[in-house]
Amino acid sequence: MYEGQQLRTVQQHILQEQTRFPGATGEFSWLLSGITLAAKMIQSKVRRAGLTDLLGSMDQTNVQGEVQQKLDVYSNEALMHCLSLRQSIGILASEENERPITVNFKSPSAKYAVIFDPLDGSSNIDVNVSVGTTFSILRRPEGEDSTDVEKWVLQPGATQVAAGYVVYGSSTILVYSVGNGVHGFTLEPGVGAFLLSHESIKMPSQGTYYSTNEGYVDQMPAPYPEFIQDLRQGKLGRPYSARYIGSMVADFHRTLLKGGIFLYPPTEAQSSGKLRLLYEANPIAFIAEQAGGIATDGNQRILDIQPTTIHQRTPLVVGSQVEMQAFANAVPAMAESVN
Asked: What is the dihedral of CA 60, 62, 63, 65, to 10 degrees?
């Protein structure tokens, strides 16, 4: 199967990439290995969920007021366990926890905070739809702020030192960036390793798909409905087809590889948007920009937003250059963040 191929694992790739960090001694690759280990644990449970009583809810809600799925809880515990053992991590923050968790916070070797959504789209597990994990890695702030837990976490997305996501679908794929391009790795179950399968991913400059929940189109503010109608009518020079999965990671993964645009606008019920800035929008925006795409909240670049709370929500529009420029033309306030 692998004859003639030069195989590269994610660990080998990370070791090469970490040379970009001054004074790196292997700690960054060790940190990321915690994420890859947890991802393997999660995908194993996802694949066997229907056989091991892991489908369905826990009959309790998280800090977001959302019903927790059994796999949400397992995925959160897996990431917390694997990452808390890494001495370079001082703080962990998750969608499932109200406050950040300090692990090796007082250690001088603790240089990073990791923020994550353990299982995006978990309500789709019951119907066998792809789900995912998103993560963002921030560096410990310098000076007096280094002892302020919230200052570790409440940093704009532009300060991320690495970000990525994992898609659990027909195959399990890890996509990540340390600010030097975007790379994808597919889990080879036979050897238990993530192998490089998508090197230096570039988002096409224009796609043929748009992705949004059109069930809420009547609740979207202008100009979203008008822009969606423009896409349908081929006003960007080609006809567009609608593709919407309902798991953000899966919808964005298609947009990353095939181009197009993904819109998660504010609605009457969610006037501030529904996606979380720190551990959903920021890592997706970081990946998008590294691949040549654009991400905005409809008014400004996502990565420029200064967060004020751990679970802050935001609208998100992300996609290829052509579609995002067309959207900017429809939203004058957004033009500066795109150009």
From this structure: -70
Least confident piece of the model among 45-59, 66-80, 232-246, 306-320: 45-59
Task: Using alpha carbons, list the distances in angstroms from residue 278 to 101, 113, 117, 245, 310.
Answer: 15, 12, 9, 22, 7
Provide CB contacts within 8 A for 167, sequence distance 6+. 130, 131, 132, 173, 175, 249, 250, 253
* Structure confidence by residue, pLDDT tens digits, 106-147: 888 899 999 999 999 877 877 888 999 999 999 998 875 667
Pairwise CA distance, residues 176 & 197, whole Å: 12
CB-CB contact of 79 with 38 (8 Å): yes
**CA-based nearest residue to 123, from 248, 261, 278:** 248
How far apart CA 92 and CA 101 sit, in angstroms, is: 5
Q: Please state the φ and ψ torsions of residue 220, each to the nearest 5 degrees.
A: -80, 145
Contact 287, 165 (CB under 8 A): yes
> Residue 5 corresponds to which tokens in the numbers above?
């191929």
The helix (run of H) or strand (run of E) holding residue 164 is: strand 160-168
> Hey, what amino acid is at 278?
L
100-114 residues labelled b (16+ CB within 10 A) or e (exposed): bebbbbeeeebbbbb
Burial 20-47 (b: 16+ CB within 10 A, else e): ebeeeeebbbbbbbbbbbbbbbbbebbe
DSSP annotation string for 62-83: -TTSPEEEHHHHHHHHHHHHHH
- CB crowding 227-241: b at 16 or more within 10 Å, else e: bbebbeeeebeeebe
Of 123, 117, 124, nearest to 68 (Cα)?
A: 123
In terms of residues, how long is the chain? Answer: 339
**Which residues are within 8 A (CB) of 293 and not within 5 positions of it... i.e. 6 or more apart?**
203, 255, 256, 318, 319, 320, 321, 324
- Backbone φ, ψ for residue 21 (5° rounding): -100, 115
